[in-house]
């Protein structure tokens, strides 16, 4: 801009030529490597639970005014949800903290499938996954089917819980959401799970893994 003010003709080609002649180099900012990320592709569904978790966000509101953000996580093999967390605001650090709590109770997965939201691409979550030996697998742009299991769970969650309740406060929302979540995991038989609840089906898969001679159902 200063050169143009002085009526000196300049463009990017001339600038690059001058830099080459003077042996100069334009310093470019190094892009931070996602140390826990892997190639964008859907994870092949394993036979055993606890290997892959899928996570996403669902939005709602409290008293039709303040936005409610809900972190949802599901094991696509057993359909059991190890984590659901409603809050007014959830950043990458909070996602990592909630996953740490879920890890202590359920163990850690090998992969976590998610979309490209800023919370999931944060350095805090990336660092947590790296320290725990977990690979983050991001869905391909325009391919929501890469994470179809969490999309299906979120649809059920919205139809059966969010659309059925009016939340007076964050406390009220958490109580109603956790009640639904516990009922889904423990009491809800599912046709896909051979008529078992997610908790029962997960127990059956773990028992089969520890006793492979029992064969498949």
TrEMBL record:
Entry-linked InterPro entries: Integrase_cat-core, RNaseH-like_sf, RNaseH_sf, Transpos_IS3
GO process terms (BP): DNA integration
Pfam families assigned to the protein according to its UniProt record, in alphabetical order: rve_3
Integrase catalytic domain segment(s): 45-206
Domain of life: Bacteria
GO MF term (any one): nucleic acid binding
PANTHER family the UniProt entry points to: BLR2054 PROTEIN (PTHR47515:SF1), LOW CALCIUM RESPONSE LOCUS PROTEIN T (PTHR47515)
Classification via NCBIfam families: transpos_IS3
Name the record gives this protein: Putative transposase
Organism: Spirochaeta isovalerica
């Amino acid at each position: 801009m200063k050169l143009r003010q002085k009526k000196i003709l300049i463009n990017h080609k001339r600038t690059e030529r001058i830099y080459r002649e003077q042996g100069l180099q334009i310093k470019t900012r190094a892009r931070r490597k996602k140390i826990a990320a892997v190639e964008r592709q859907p994870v092949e569904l394993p036979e055993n639970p606890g290997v892959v978790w899928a996570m996403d966000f669902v939005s709602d509101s409290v008293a039709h005014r303040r936005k409610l953000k809900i972190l949802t996580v599901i094991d696509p093999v057993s359909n059991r949800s190890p984590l659901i967390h409603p809050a007014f605001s959830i950043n990458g650090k909070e996602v990592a903290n909630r996953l740490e709590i879920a890890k202590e109770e359920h163990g850690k997965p090998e992969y976590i499938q998610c979309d490209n939201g800023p919370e999931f691409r944060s350095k805090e979550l990336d660092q947590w996954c790296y320290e725990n030996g977990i690979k983050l697998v991001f869905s391909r742009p325009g391919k929501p089917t890469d994470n179809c299991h969490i999309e299906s769970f979120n649809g059920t969650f919205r139809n059966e819980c969010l659309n059925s309740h009016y939340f007076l406060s964050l406390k009220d929302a958490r109580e109603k959401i956790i009640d639904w979540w516990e009922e889904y995991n423990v009491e809800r038989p599912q046709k896909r799970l051979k008529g078992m609840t997610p908790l029962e089906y997960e127990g059956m898969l773990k028992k089969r893994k520890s006793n492979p001679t029992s064969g498949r159902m």
